[in-house]
Amino acid sequence: MNYTRRAGLVALAGIASLALVSCGSGGTPSEGGETVAAANLDGTIEKPNLTLGFIKLTDMAPLAIALEKGYFAEEGLNVQLVPQANWKVLLDGVISGELDGAHMLAGQPIAATIGYGTKADLIAPLSLDLNGNAITLSNKVWAEIKPSLPTSGGKITHPISASYLKPVVEEYEQQGKPFNMGMVFPVSTHNYELRYWLAAGGLNPGYYTAGDVSGTVDADVKLSVTPPPQMPATLEAGTIEGYCVGEPWNQAAVFKGIGVPVITDDEIWNDNPEKVFGLRKDFAEKYPATTAAMLRAIIRAQQWLDADGGANRAEAVEILSRPNYVGADAEVIAASMTGKFTFEKGDTRDAEGFNIFFDKYAGYPYYSDAIWYLTQMRRWGQIAEDQSDDWYATTAKAVYRPDLYLAAANQLVAKGTITKDDVPETDGYRAPTNEFIDGVTYDGHKPNDYLSKFSIGLKQGDRVTASGVSGS
After folding, report:
1. pTM of the model
2. Which domains does the chain possess?
3. What is the predicted pLDDT for the residue at 212?
């Protein structure tokens, strides 16, 4: 069968699924005035030739697999995947239209929508994965903290609190030296995870002021931006003493013998949302059938990546190791992608959930995930003023688009590609959770209550200036 015609039949079959979305099967009615994108009645792909961007990280895997396993092609799409130099270049490419969509930091479409850094109407109709990051320290710093760490059965007890880092940071301060760490972008999950870990251990990672992208006001630890593939070299050069990044760049430090990962992000926040598939809002509105086709292909790739307990991960590692994708040694990529994680040589542990792409509804873009990112932007001063709980909810619903995800997913359910049980029944919010390293409970319905619980971070009424925090 000609696939353009086949895609049309799938889209027609999906019309019934769209109705299911609005009546609560595998989802709930869209909120905040959002509507499911209208499907072309003839199923025509409006824009079959697409260019999608990515950064060389293992969590771009759904895009690589969708291309290599033919899922994009089966949807009538001719996709070119193009690596980007850094997250800023990638963001600019999506905004300008040079890229039709991209593997994006979850915070990027949110920040663009509220006008932090740049202003653009971007959306996230799909989450690419859960977990996948870690924090690595230099050998020098690791050697200083290791003797004080508790052990069990001859191995270091995890998770490791940042409180063990405090004496080292204080020693640097006494010597008049800054303690520098790297993260990949000011609105990255990595920035917020690193800040969360440091603050939970009693170290202030600093606050942002208007027009300030360094965020170092009142900082005990100075954080700076380094593109992911450059993290190991920057650490080796001594420019930074540690970093938070996605794989394979933590395992690369282990293999090169230059650093030691001390905590994975699922130990900071269990099953935390990571990257998203981001695109311009007007693209989705202008090309609804194309958008749905992209989402179907990516969902199928996510399913393949998690199928049969990770049986396909070895093949995924080989694909990702190719120069046109991540381009790291397969052994390094496999160290985290196949259910194991090495903290230091001789200490490899089971990490079955280190990368989750489909299981646990990993692809569904929960409003509460977007709200968590917004709370961290407010906590550290990127959002300068207090905002109401309603503002957080409305902003999240403008960016995260479960209506588009559900339309595509329910089309796959109608085909029998995935099951009804693979699509969550939800109001768009995860249940409240306290699975954070500090045990603080997060309820996406109550963002201001959540922010009030932290000893380090902005409180109601606080403002940041170059001289410090004032207000409460």
Report:
1. 0.91
2. 3-130+273-422 (3.40.190.10), 133-272 (3.40.190.10)
3. 83
